Structure formats: structure tokens, C-alpha cells
Amino acid sequence: MAYVSVDRAVKFFTREDGSEMLVLDGVSFDAKEHGITCLLGPSGCGKSTLLNAIAGLEKLDQGGIEFRVSSAERQVMDRKNPKENSEPGTRNPELPGRSPRLGYVFQDPRLLNWKRVEDNLVFAFKGMKIPRESWPGLLEKYLSLVGLLGFRKQYPLYLSGGMRQRVGLARGLAIEPEILLMDEPFSKLDQLTARQLRQDTVEICARLGQTTMLVTHDVEEAAYMGDRIVIFSSRPAHIVEVVENPLEAAKRDLDDFAFIQFKKRLLQTVLKLVEQEGV
Amino acid sequence: MSSLDSITPAEPARQDQAIAVRREADSTSLATNVSFRRARAGARRETVRDVALRVASVIALVSIWWLLSLFFPPSLVPKPWDTFAEVGVIVTSGNFFTEMGATLRRVLVGFGLAMIVSIPLGIFMGTLRSLESFFEPPVILGLTVPGLIWAVLAIMFFGLTETSAYAAIAVTIAPMLAISIWQGTKSIDKDLIDMSKVFHASAWSKVVDVILPQLVSHILAAIRYGLGLAWKVVVVVEMFGFSNGVGYQVVRGFNVFSMKAVLAWTITFLVVMIVIEFGLIGWLERSVTRWRPRVEAWRR
Ligand SMILES: Nc1ncnc2c1ncn2[C@@H]1O[C@H](COP(=O)(O)OP(=O)(O)OP(=O)(O)O)[C@@H](O)[C@H]1O
Ligand SMILES: [Mg+2]
After folding, report:
1. In this predicted structure, what is the pLDDT of residue B39?
2. Where are the beta strands (DSSP E) in chain B?
């Protein structure tokens, strides 16, 4: 299916006063193919900016992001040259193949408030050209997954913040993308709901073989969900460490000794980073 | 995450606490129930009060009119009830429907033409910088030209035809509509546009599902204001020599110096306007903004 590689990504933002601010300072890593890659880093370091660049919403100033759609259907998408890739998902016509299907669960839910919950999902189905016959099945499956089947006819402004976040999650999952980007998708949920949804998301990603990138602040979440954990420094962001999860996804158990050990190790790495930077 | 798993064995104390908490919850729910009912009754009282205030305002206006009629001869200020009787005659004679129908048709056609041009123009001006720079001068100029001048120009150009009425109305309100939609388009949420790009929404879907719904309140405000302008222009156009319409009837009243007729036609016209503005457009507004919870709580 799909493979994502971030290669020496550099991104500047222009401040109000016109001065340049370095946000991404040569970020390089490979996302785990068919697995979950967690991006762990302090607030404001540039994690959302990186996901936006991968989704094609921001242009990198240097470096590139490479997509490959299976080894047979090899295709390289390079976002280095803005003219060739002005729209997300467009591709260089000289290269064979197709752009990967990409789903994005935004940090703020970004729902169309004037559309009912189910129509928010249908909006994505239409855009992604998902055949109409499969809409009812997908709606039912993913809305019940996030526990909102009973609210499918409701308008988003009549839902709670956490429920809206779950609609955004359902929309990203329901298009069953090859590459799934998730920006703190469980941050507004209570622990029990978050825990259930983490488990379900891991299962779905494993079943569909998606390449998933998940931004989180939560070390435990990273240890539980991440097959690979990429630790960012504070702004300007570079990669401090890439940790492979020694435990297989199916064997991770929050109360298991091996899991707790791994979580501690991860936490220590993060704490060391905080000490070094003197935050 | 694991805090929920580790329940410590301190049962008795916990139970007491639990009961205490439940009692509290019961009493609060009772309290909210009562205050909810009280709030609903309060809301009803407020609507009654609002209606009463409006009625009082109309009565005050008619009283002032009546007071004035005591000091002026009926040829200048007729008695209110004489005028209302004239309104009755206009309506029952069937005159009202043909004349009002002609005027309404002119307004609606002119308005429709203006909308067809202005909504796309406003959206393009809000999204494309080059078009913004190109169309800004004509739109601003168009806004400053008085409706009366457009009426004169249209009649000189098209003669005394329906076309000149449509054109005068359309040209008068189009700039105002375009400006309102242009400004609205500039303030739409970029994050939602980004979202629609990620999910590969078509250009059509971007406009219909993402952009237009965010412009609804701007468009409605523009319709209200535009209708107000259109009424004024249509009457002026009709005064120039049309043989029907409310404007023509007012001029006829003027020619025989019948203040009663002029006022009676003005009143029927006002009533129709009010029905359209508050009834029709109010209903339209409520039905297209059903997704938005009402925000009335902070007003006094
Ligand atoms: N459009 C923008 N223009 C200018 N600066 C921006 C813009 N977007 C983000 N920034 C800056 O870039 C930095 C990184 O922002 P980003 O949203 O990527 O952080 P983040 O790692 O996702 O943080 P958090 O975990 O709090 O969401 C921030 O310091 C922010 O001020
Ligand atoms: Mg972020």
C-alpha cells in the first residue's frame, strides 16, 4: 500500500513583524509502513505543521515528502517543487501511478456545522469518490465505532466538544485511507472512551493495513499505539530519537510489566530532553 | 489511564460518600427542573411583552397622526380612520392586487437579476485578488450612484418598458449585494477550505457545501437591505410615466391632490413590505439557520 518518508523538511513561518521563524529544522524520518507512527513532542514545536505539509496544505521551504504506493505501483510525490504539486493529491503527470488516499483527523474537528453528522461523513465520501452503495455500511460501521450512531441526524453545534472530536475521527477513518494522519484525536475525551477508541483504532489500522501517523502529547498513548515513536525537540523541531516499540501491537497490555517498562523508558527519554533544553 | 483499575478496599466510607453525592445530585436536578420551568415561563412573558411594546408603538404613531390632523385641514393631514377606510376601498375594489402585483413583479425580477450577477461576482472578488482589484472601482462607484439616477438612465435607454424597471432595480442593488458577499467571502474559515481540499471536494462542492453556507447571514442581510432599496427605486421608476404599479397610483393621487389616496397607497405598500420582510425573509432565515442554536440568552 503506501509508504511515507519525510526528508530533511525545513519550514519557516513569517511573523506579524515580517521576521522569519524557523519551525521545522531538517526533520527526517520514515513512517512505519502498514503501522502506526506516533509523533511525540512539546506543544508548539511544529507537529501539526508537519502533518499539514504531508497533507499538502503547507509547502515546505526545503526538503521533501515522499509517498510510495506499494513497491509495484511505485510513485514518488515530491512536494519540493510547489508548481508541480499546487493541490494536495495532484501528481507529476510524468510519473506513473496514483496519489495515495489520504485521511486527516484534524486537531480541531473542522466539521461543517450546517451539515448533520452523517452528512459530514458523506461530504468526505463524495470527495473521495467512494461508491454510493457502500455509504450506508461505512456510516453505520464508523459512527457506531465512535458511539455516535444515535446522533447521526444531529447538527454538530448541538454536540459536546468530545462528541465533535469523535465525528472528526469517524470522518477520517470512514474513508478507509491508505495514509491516515491523526492530530491528537483523543485529547478531548474521557479516559474510558479514549481507551476504547485507541484500542479500536489500532485494530482498524491493523486490519486495513494503513500507514498511520498520530500526533500525541501522551507518553502512554504513544507507547500503546505506536509501532514507531518519533520524538521531536521543541521549536525549531528536529528529531531527537526514533524508538521502535519492542512489543507487538496485539501484545501490548496497559498492566503488563513489559509494557510499563517500555512506557517508563519512553518517559525518561522525554524527560531527559526537557532537562537538556531547560524548558 | 490505569487509575480506574486500582480500586482500594475502603468500602464503607465510599458507600456513604456515594449516597451523599447521589442525594446532592437529586436535589440539584430538582432545582434545575424548577428553574428550567421558570425560565420557560419567563421566555413566554418576554414574548408577550415584546408584542405589547410593538402594538403600543403603532398606537403611538397613529395617535400622533390623529393629533396632527386636528391642527391641519384634511387636504393636508386626513384623519387616520378616513385613510384606513380608503385602504379598505383599494383592497376590496381589486385594484390593489393588480397594481401591487405589477410592482412586486418588477422588484422580484430586478432583484433576481442582481442576485445572479452579484453572488458569483462577490465570491470571486473575495477569493481571487486580481478580480478584487479589477472590480473594486466599478462596484464602489455603482454603490454611490443614487437609485434615482439609475432610474433616469434606464428609462432614457430602454424607454417606458418593463425592461427599464428591471434594469434600474438590478443595477441599483447589485453593487450593494456584491460588496456584502465579497466581504463575507473574505471572512470565511480557511481551515474548512483546507479540510475540503484534503478530502478532494470538487469545486462545486466547495462552493455549495463549504463557502455558501458561511455566507448565509451576509446574503440574508444583503437581501433585507437590497429589498429596501428596490422598493424605493421601483416607485420612482413607476412615477416616470408607467401606467400601473403602486408608484403610478401615488402619482395619480398627487395629480388630483388627494392626500388620502397617496397615504392609503403608501400604507398598503408598507403592509406588504412588512409582511415580506418579517414574514417571508424571517421564515427563510429560520429555515436556513436551523443548524445554529439560538443565541438570545445574553440580551436583556
Ligand atoms: N499559519 C501560521 N503562521 C505563522 N506561524 C504559525 C502558523 N501556524 C503555526 N505557526 C507557528 O508554528 C509553530 C508550530 O505550530 P504547530 O501548530 O505545528 O505546533 P504543534 O506542534 O502542533 O503544537 P500543539 O501540540 O500545541 O498542537 C508555533 O509556534 C506557531 O506559532
Ligand atoms: Mg498541533
Report:
1. 65
2. none
Tens-digit pLDDT profile for residues B26-54: 444 445 555 656 666 777 777 888 888 88
Residues framing ligand 1 (Cβ under 6 A): A 13, 23, 43-49, 107, 235
Residues A226 and A128 in one domain: no
What is the distance between the alpha carbons of residues B25 and A215, in angstroms, rounded to a whole number?
Answer: 38
- Whole-number Å distance between alpha carbons of A183 and A106: 5
How far is CA A100 from each of CA A3, A49, A95, A126, B85, rounded to the nearest angstrom? 9, 20, 14, 17, 75
Query: Which structural domain range is residue A128 located in?
Result: 112-177
What is the complex's ipTM, to 2 decimals?
0.85
Q: Where are the beta strands (DSSP E) in chain A?
A: 2-14, 20-30, 36-40, 62-69, 102-105, 179-183, 211-216, 228-232, 239-244
Asked if B194 and A110 come within 8 Å (Cβ–Cβ), the reply is yes
| Residues A195 and A150 grouped into a single domain | no
A75, A67 Cβ separation under 8 angstroms: yes
- Topology of domain B79-288 in CATH is MetI-like fold (1.10.3720)
CA closest to A220 among chain B residues? B1
- The count of domains in chain A is 2
Residues of B in contact with A158 (CB under 8 A): 293
B290 touches chain A (CB under 8 A): yes
Residue among A56, A88, A127 minimizing CB distance to B205? A127
The residue-averaged pLDDT of B272-300 equals: 79
Give me the helix-helix angle, B162-186 and B95-127, nearest 10°: 40
pLDDT of residue A74: 42
Residues of A with CB under 8 A from a CB of B: 52, 55-57, 87-89, 102-104, 106, 108, 110, 112-115, 123-124, 126-129, 155-158, 171, 175, 191-192, 194-195, 220, 254-255
pTM above 0.80, yes or no: no
> Is B202 an 8 Å CB contact of chain A?
yes
pLDDT, tens only, B205-227: 998 999 989 998 888 888 888 88
Q: Is A105 part of a structural domain of the chain?
A: no
* Range with the poorest average pLDDT among A247-256, A262-271, B197-206: A247-256
Nearest to B200 among A89, A108, A113 (CB): A89
